[in-house]
Design a protein that fits this description.
- The protein is of the alpha/beta class and about 425 residues long.
- About 50% of the residues lie in helices and about 5% in strands.
- It contains 20 helices and seven strands.
- It has helices spanning about 5-10, 20-25, 30-35, 50-60, 75-85, 105-115, 130, 135-140, 150-165, 175-185, 190-205, 210-215, 230-245, 250-260, 265-280, 285-300, 305-320, 325-340, 390-405, 415; strands at about 40-45, 65-70, 90-95, 120-125, 140-145, 175, 210.
- The strands form two sheets. It has a five-stranded parallel beta sheet with strand order 2-3-4-1-5, with helices on both faces. Strands 6-7 form a two-stranded parallel sheet.
- Helix 5 (about 75-85) links the parallel strand 2 and strand 3 (about 90-95).
- The radius of gyration is 31 Å and the shape is elongated.
């Protein structure tokens, strides 16, 4: 039985790798390594199907080095030690897939060899290495992002697979439209595209010209890069908030649609409510309220109908004026109190002990409330709120803010009560 088409079509040398021109083309980092006959430890990170393992193996072949592939979750400590022993005998590249799952025992074995250069190490992961890779390993490797392939590169790969002796060997024919459709729904994943090509070649008679309707008949779902539990999902969440903040409504709607594929309704509503308070805030409190209401409706009705109120609030938030002044104020205050011990004035305490009645807080004197000093002693001039005058609402409260700042506040409550201040 033949290996899968995607496996058979793996390029053997770096010059046959599709895409990744900044790495493999003349002047690219890996190209220069081959020219210099020298290499460094690396971590390849990028989405599934972008070619991390393929590039590592092709690089090893181009460097004429022994290549050993391990998996952080499957291969045991003894297998790692065996690979290291092999590297004593012959120049070797050891690749560890899912390197972000490497346990401490294996890390401890690996670290000395990352220092002495007995072998070249290549880690591979779909996770963000800055968040998922042990700092000790990260500091001893170069992080290299492997980008998803574009549609044109995938189209080249599909045509190559149809013609290749290792592929379909020209035994099946596809229309150009069908191949372009496959390259589009593959979402940058060449392996996914090869699997569609192979499945479709087995699904129809040999003399049949496979067209776009035949591919659609197979009911392949477009390969989304917003799976609930991977970095691409959180990157999309980040892109949604930044698009709303930047008031590019079409981009915001696009990322919302992308997130809806993951069915993470609670996560989407949570992010939108935070975005409303953080980025729109005092510029349009009514839009913040509308966002909350829309999110509650979305949670009540569930998907797929939830996309309607969610679409409503994303458009509303994106096109609303923006102000981060309230969010920035609390962030500044929080950072300050974390590093500066402070004490509440006696007259502000819930139940002050042994405080002269003349200096107790005047609950019955609303005329004095705006004249009392509420900041801790010594911090009277500390300011956290910095208005962003992007809307009529915040301009109005800023006028009140200026009025209040002009009032001379006092901690001498006795004098205030006696109208001597």
């Amino acid at each position: 039985m033949n290996e899968p088409l995607a496996y058979r079509m793996r390029p053997k040398t770096l010059d046959k790798v599709l895409g990744q021109k900044k790495l493999v083309s003349k002047g690219g980092f890996l190209y220069n390594c081959i020219e210099a006959n020298s290499a460094v430890n690396m971590i390849f990170f990028g989405p599934s199907g972008s070619g991390k393992t393929t590039i590592a193996e092709a690089f090893a072949n181009s460097m004429k080095m022994n290549f050993i592939k391990l998996n952080a979750t499957i291969n045991k400590k003894e297998e790692l030690l065996d690979a290291i022993n092999q590297s004593r005998l012959i120049p070797t590249i050891i690749m560890i897939d899912e390197v972000h799952r490497l346990n401490k025992d294996k890390q401890d074995i690996l670290l000395p060899f990352l220092e002495n250069g007995q072998f070249i190490f290549i880690g591979a992961t779909t996770a963000n290495p800055l968040l998922s890779i042990n700092k000790a390993i990260r500091s001893r490797t170069r992080l290299i992002e492997i980008m998803p392939l574009d549609k044109e590169d995938i189209l080249i790969g599909l045509k190559r697979a149809i013609e290749s002796e290792n592929g379909l060997n020209n035994k099946r024919k596809f229309t150009e439209e069908a191949l372009k459709y496959i390259s589009t729904i593959a979402g940058g994943d060449l392996r996914y595209a090869y699997n569609i090509l192979e499945t479709s070649s087995l699904s129809f008679l040999k003399d049949h010209l496979i067209d776009i309707d035949d591919i659609k008949e197979l009911n392949y779902i477009p390969n989304s890069h917003s799976d609930l539990n991977d970095d691409q999902h959180y990157d999309t969440v980040s892109a949604l908030q930044k698009s709303i903040r930047g008031s590019q409504v079409d981009a915001a709607i696009f990322y919302l649609a992308k997130l809806l594929e993951s069915n993470d309704l609670e996560g989407i509503t949570r992010r939108l409510m935070v975005t409303a308070y953080e980025d729109i805030g005092l510029a349009s409190p009514s839009a913040v309220d509308r966002c909350y209401n829309a999110c509650q409706v979305a949670l009540n009705v569930g998907l797929p109908e939830a996309m309607i109120p969610l679409g409503f609030t994303v458009v509303d938030l994106a096109l609303s004026p923006k102000s981060k002044s309230a969010a920035l104020a609390i962030e500044k205050a929080y950072d300050y109190v974390k590093s500066n011990p402070t004490y509440v004035r006696d007259y502000l305490k819930l139940t002050p002990v042994n405080l002269n009645p003349d200096y107790k807080y005047p609950y019955d004197r609303s005329d004095l409330w705006e004249k009392i000093e509420y900041m801790p002693s010594g911090l009277e001039d500390l300011e956290f709120y910095d208005p962003q005058l992007t809307s009529k609402y915040e301009k109005n409260i800023f006028e009140n803010y200026k009025r209040l700042k002009s009032i001379r506040r006092s901690s001498d409550l006795k004098s205030l009560k006696e109208n001597k201040e």
